[in-house]
Amino acid sequence: MTIEVRVPQLPESVADATLVSWHKKPGDSVARDENLVDLETDKVVLEVPAPTGGVLKEIKLADGTTVTSGQLLAIIEEGATAVPGASAPAIMAASSGATTTAKDAAREAVKPDATGGKLSPAARRVAEENRVDPKAVAGSGRDGRVSKTDVVNYLAQSAAPAAKSPQQFVPPSSSALSARGARAEQRVPMTRLRARIAERMVQAQSTQALLTSFNEVDLKAVNELRARYKGDFEKQHGVKLGFMSFFTKACVEALKKFPSVNASVDGNDIVYHEYFDVGVAVSTDRGLIVPVLRDADQLSFADIEKSIGNFATRARAGSITMEELTGGTFTITNGGVFGSLLSTPIVNSPQSAILGMHKIQDRPVVVDGQIVVRPMMYIALTYDHRIIDGREAVQFLVTVKQCLEDPARMVLHV
C-alpha cells in the first residue's frame, strides 16, 4: 500500500516554505516518525516525519523547491523492505504547482548527489559560502550526515598546509598577477530567514520614528548575588543563575511603570498590552530569531533561565516552533556576548521598544566621592518616538538601572 507524504499545514502567517534537504533517498528504508525532509519558512525549519514505516518509493520535489501546504512531497511503500543494491527511481526535479527560481538553481549548484554526504541546513550554508564540494567532506552524523562542524573542520584542514610554511612563499609571477586581476565574486541567495529579517528591519526603520537612549549599570550587586547563591541555585533548580533573568525581571518592573513602552501602534490606535511577553533574541547559524517568554511577570528566576536555555538549544537545532516566535510585547537583545560595548538595536516591529545589553567591563567610576573599579555595562533603549516620549524612555532605563543596582527592588516591587 502506498502512502503519500505531503507538506504539513503551514501557520496562517506563512504562505509557503522552501524544501531545504532530504534525509532519505528513493529506495531507503524509513521508520515511522523518522524525519524525511527539512522545510524552511521565514522563521523556522520544519521537519516532516514519515507517516508510516516502509520504503521511500519516490521523491516528488527536489531540494530548493518552493512548496505550499498540502503539496505532495513523496510516496512511501508501507510495510515494504529495502532491497540492497536495488536501483531507486529518479527524483523528480519539479511537479505541477512547484515554483522554481534563480534561488532554487543556486541551491542545486551545491546540492550533493546521491553518492555524496547528506548535509544539514547549517552545513549546506557553510558549504555554499566557501564553495566546498559536499562529496569531499566526511560526515560524522547518522547515516553519514554532514554537519556544520564537519564542513568547518574540513576547511581548517584544507588551509593548514599553507599556514604551516610561510617561509616557502614565492612572489607571484606577472602571469599569475594578470590571472588574479579577474577577481571572482560569489553570489549566494539569502535564506528565507535572512530575507525576512532584512524585510522586518527595513520596515521598522521606514515606519517607526526610532530613537535610542543610553544609560550605564553597575553590576556589582548582581555579581555578588550570583556568586553567593549560584551553587545553591543550580543544585535546587538544575540551571545556572545567569544575567538574563535579572534583566528580564528588571525590564518587567520598568514596563509596569511605563505602559507605553509595552504598547504598539495599530493604525491610528495605540494598543496597551496588559501582559508582559518578553522576546529574547537568540543568534543561530541561520540568523537572529526572537522566542518569547510568555507572562514573564509570573515567571521565577529559575523559570526564565530554564526557558531561555531551552529556547537557545532548540533554536540552534532548528526545532523551535512558530508559536514560540510570534507575539511578544517587548524584546531584549544581548550583543555583549559577542563583545559589543555599545550599539543601537532596531525595534522588533510591531513592538515599540527593545533593550540592548552590552559587554560587562571593569571601569573606574565615582562612588560616594571615591574612585572605584566596578563591573559596568552600557544599556540602550531604542523606541518608537511616535508613542514613547523621551522622558518615559529615560525613566524606563533609570528604573532598569535601579533594579539591577539594588535587586531587592525586584522582590519588593518598588
Question: Could you please describe the fold and organization of this structure?
Answer:
With 414 residues, the protein is an alpha+beta fold. It has three domains: 1-111, Beta Barrel (OB fold (Dihydrolipoamide Acetyltransferase, E2P)); 113-158, E3-binding domain (Dihydrolipoamide Transferase, Irregular); 192-412, Chloramphenicol acetyltransferase-like domain (Chloramphenicol Acetyltransferase), CATH 3.30.559.10. The chain has ten helices and 19 strands. The protein has helices at 102-110, 121-130, 148-164, 174-180, 192-207, 220-237, 244-257, 301-317, 390-405, 408-412, and strands spanning 2-6, 17-22, 29-30, 35-40, 45-49, 54-59, 66-67, 72-78, 210-218, 263-266, 269-272, 278-280, 282-284, 287-289, 292-293, 330-334, 353-357, 361-367, 370-384. The strands form five sheets. Strands 9, 12, 15, 16, 17, 18 and 19 form a seven-stranded mixed beta sheet that branches. The protein has a four-stranded antiparallel beta sheet with strand order 1-8-6-3, with no helix packed on it. A four-stranded antiparallel beta sheet has the order 5-4-2-7, with no helix packed on it. Helix 7 (244-257) packs across helix 8. The termini are far apart.
Number of domains: 3
* Poorly predicted residue ranges: 90-116, 161-168
DSSP helix count?
Answer: 10
**N-to-C order of helices and strands:** EEEEEEEEHHHHHEHHEEEEEEHEEEEHH
Shape descriptor reads: elongated
Percentage of residues in DSSP E strands: 15-25%
How is the main sheet built? 7 strands, mixed
Q: Specify the CATH architecture of the largest domain.
A: 2-Layer Sandwich
